[in-house]
Request: fold
Amino acid sequence: MTKEISLDPRLASDSVAIGKLALCEVRLQDDARFPWLVLVPQREAVSELFELSAADRALAIEEIAQCSAALRAVTKCLKINAGALGNIVRQLHIHIVARNEDDAAWPGPVWGVGARLPYGETEKAEFIARIRSALAMQR
Reply:
């Protein structure tokens, strides 16, 4: 496990902690319209993937793959979108979004489409439990 780092307030307000992998904290984006994970590498003052050490970059790619596979297993989605934009929130974070042809943004990107629909508490808890199970992680 890695040490705790400060989390950008916008990431904290829009997502919920699921658990931690070797490098990244895994968070659920609180928008029930799109099953959406956010990976936050636990490294201070990093805003770009290339700023990670070679070992951390390799680990980040493995954790992206691991979370992508878990999200697909849980959602049975058609497509996984993954990206690290950071134009507004500069702290390095990677979005992993499950996509289907009938989602609210298909086939375009999910950013800026409609209003966020927060999960209900039961729905959120159940989804988090399923992702934790798929990742074989504890909190």
In short: The longest helix spans residues 54-75. The two ends are 12 Å apart (CA to CA). The chain has three helices and five strands.
